[in-house]
Amino acid sequence: MRAPRSVARRRLLAAGAAPIGLALPAAAPAAGPLAPTPAQARGPFYPPDPPRDAGPDLVVERDGRRARGEPLRFSGRVIDTAGRPLAGARVELWQCNADGRYHHPRDDSPAPVDPLFRGFGRTVADGDGRWAFRTIRPVPYPGRTPHLHLLVATPDGRTLVTQAYVRGEPGNARDGLLGWLSADQRERLMIDLVRAADAGWTASFDVVMPGRAGPVG
Fold this sequence. Notes:
By secondary structure, the protein is mainly β. 9% of the residues lie in helices and 25% in strands. It has 3 helices and 12 strands, in the order H-E-E-E-E-E-E-E-E-H-H-E-E-E-E. Strands 3, 6, 10, 11 and 12 form a 5-stranded mixed β-sheet that branches. Strand 7 and strand 8 (159-166) form a beta hairpin. The longest helix has 10 residues, at 5-14. The chain is globular and about 45 Å long.
């Protein structure tokens, strides 16, 4: 018999190009050498077959309705430890819907599926390393504090999987994956939600990639 979704998640924790219509933040020079963004587990709900036509908009609007949840414009840059932009980096984003369920065949949560929320998006960083998504504010579900999953792959072969967390969320102190990190690492994974004019939210998150990949083969 399969363990309930919340139990399975707790076992996992114990085991340890710019989109049209979205304004991108202006690039800013780095003050000095930067620490790479901490890596995090990809988790069990990365799409088994990511849609090839996935874009930067995870929110579907149809017949006057749109995905449940509070709108969020989530943007940032992909840079190296010297603060240089990494143009052409592929950025993937996935998260649960507003009811705490992933768009994934392994998620057997009783929470409802939202047909208007794609749950997965992909974009490419522009010449300044900038990227942006339209999505929803992340929510908690059993065993996890609100978070956004990111996978970043650069043209020179570097790949980083990480998660971004909302500063001030009560569940942060109890989250197993977040708790494994040092205080400095946790701080580098935090995002600040800022109210937008449309009553939604904006948040910015720069991904600092580790050192250059070596030759293949």
